[in-house]
Structures are given as structure tokens and as C-alpha cells.
Amino acid sequence: MTVRIIAALFLVAAFVGARTPAAQTPAAQTPAAQTPAAQTPAAQTPAQTDVGDAALERASERRTIDIGLLSTGGGVATIPLEVYVARVLAGEAEPGAADAAQQALAVAIRTYAIVNEGRHRRDGFDLCDTTHCQVMHRE
Description:
Layout: H1 2-18, H2 36-39, H3 53-60, E1 64-68, E2 76-80, H4 81-92, H5 99-115, E3 127-128
Parallel strand pairs: 1-3
Antiparallel strand pairs: 1-2
Helix pairs in contact: 1-5, 3-4, 4-5
């Protein structure tokens, strides 16, 4: 229970910080920030770049989760933990959210998955792909 509260507080703090208007930050008030060069998109950070399933499998260090595919009519998929985190992030994160918000949500997703592993043990899998557990985007 404490882990859920800490993860939720971390997530809320990240979203509040991500929603602060840029005009209120000191850097945005400088004349240089108002030039056309400052309006061009910045280089992508590591949280924004695409990472393949193979890299996520290696990062999972052989830890897998059995997911009940209830949103598509049934079946069970065994997937590496970090692949699951990436797919839930795609299913639940706000599009265009700040890197810090996505990273905080990834921590919350991973924590939830580990703590609730076996939630659907009676059904033959660990977690489901619906709002009952965490919405998972399929590939």
C-alpha cells in the first residue's frame, strides 16, 4: 500500500510540473527564448526515442508477466516486463507528455505490475489488459 501511495505522489508531482506553462519559467521570459531559433524543436531525449522490443527484452533480464488479453476476447500472452511497461505507457500516457511525466508513469506502471503480479492467478495469468489492471496498447 505504501508503494502505491509513493508512486501516486511521484506521478502527481510529475504531472503538475509538466503542466506548468512555459511562459512562467524564467528562461522563457528572456529575449533569446522568443527568437525563431528557440521555437524549433529540440533534439529528442532518450525518453522520446523509439526502443525496440529486443532492447526491452534484454532490459527485462528474463522477467516476464502473463497478461490476460481480455480486451480482445481472451488468450494469454507472456511478455517481458519492460515490453509490458512500454505498452502500458503507450496505452495510458497522455500523448506529448513531458519526459519527466512519462518516466514517472513508467515507474508507477512497473511498480504496479510487480506488486500485483498474480492478481488474476485464478484465471491463469498475472494481470489483464483492461482498466481493471492497466490498459495495454497492443504493439
